[in-house]
Amino acid sequence: MGQNDAHRGMDKVSATAVVADPMTDRLLVVQAQSGDSRAFGELVTRYMRQAYFAALGLVGNHDDALDLSQEAFARAFRARQTLDPERPFYPWLYQILRRLCFNFLRNRKSRAAKLVAAGGWLADEADARAAAQSPERATERAEVRRRVQEAIATLPAHEREVLIMREFEGLRYREIAGLLGIPIGTVMSRLYAARKALAAALGGKP
Amino acid sequence: MRDIDLQADERARHLMMAALDGEISAAEHAELEHLLEGDPALAAEWRQLSRVKEVTKTMSMREPPQEVWEGYWMGVYRRFERGFAWILVSLGAIVVLSWGAWEGLQGLWRDQDLPTVVKGGSLVLVAGLVILVVSVVREKLVIRQSDPYKDVVR
């Protein structure tokens, strides 16, 4: 999967994602491998938003997402000699990041409770429109957002990961499958399971 | 027969997902329409999933303050700067402590009044520590590299 492909279809975070030039990525990786921390800094600047939002979707709060995504970059820098410059940078970084996030979730007690308690990681564009219409409508929308957030928090991590990538990062199936190293059919099955759980949480009253 | 049903269910689910996410071809769309027309339960499920999509479509992840991005690289840089500093501190501590231990043991062994059993005990202690260090280092450097499960997310 090429870097341009990896960014195509990121409609939801397109304002925050940077479309990278794979050739420049390659050069930056080679320079970073020779010890140039500024070149690595350029890679960080290029992918920090993607990494942060990927972590935010998995762990559900700002502080942990920031901490884990920065740690992923630090580990990537330490392991930079193992990266093949011919291969795209972000999928490699993502493997480090998701391992960190999954370990973090496994070690964190009452994960779901903390995710819900942290709250506020989802923003609802419809909130503002609803607020302009009526306070009742705004309350209803806020309740829907709360329920969605809670339902996402209680999903198994593998399903949540795919749902976040599709719904909030705007990745296409092929891109998700490439990042996770799974067949597209598995991506769709996980999405289906996640959406069924959300449907149950919304109880037919979205 | 049951396998065929399961495959048909999975096919319907995949078609619904593809339709919701705009990744469906015209032929697949027609196939889904056909399935929905012939199966009221599936049609009800489709409406339910479509409502979920309508809700999540308006949501996005909250953007952090701009300062987060401005200080991001420095945060990463500090991490590997501190990592390097910890390596230096650890190496220095090992050298200094080893020297201190060696000096202490030499004094102990030179002491004529000290019982032989204590001297022998200190020797055994040093031997045990050396074996422990070698064992840990070997595990880190050799065994871990060949562990087929080291990358498994548990």
Low-confidence parts of chain A: 1-19
Rounded Rg of chain B? 33 Å
**Roughly how much helix do the residues of chain B carry, as a percent range?**
over 70%
Elements of chain A, N to C (H/E) = HHHHHHEHHHHH
Mean pLDDT of chain B: 86
Radius of gyration of chain A, rounded? 18 Å
How many β-strand stretches of chain B?
Answer: 1
**Sheet bearing the most strands of chain A, described?**
none
Shape of chain A: elongated
Architecture overview:
The complex is a heterodimer of chains A (206) and B (154). With 206 residues, chain A is mainly α. Helix content of chain A is 73%, strand content 1%. In chain A, helix 3 crosses helix 5 and helix 10 crosses helix 11. Chain A starts with a helix and ends with a helix. By secondary structure, chain B is an all-alpha fold. The two termini of chain B are 36 Å apart. The mean pLDDT of chain B is 86. The interface between A and B is large, with 54 and 38 residues.
Concise summary:
The complex is a heterodimer of chains A (206) and B (154). With 206 residues, chain A is an all-alpha fold.
Key features of this structure:
heterodimer; A: 206 residues; mainly alpha; disordered N terminus; B: 154 residues; 79% helix
Secondary structure layout plus pairing:
The complex is a heterodimer of chains A (206) and B (154).
Chain A: H1 3-7, H2 22-33, H3 37-59, H4 62-78, H5 89-107, H6 111-118, E1 122-124, H7 125-133, H8 135-153, H9 157-167, H10 173-180, H11 184-202
Chain B: H1 2-20, H2 26-38, H3 40-57, E1 59-61, H4 66-70, H5 72-110, H6 116-143
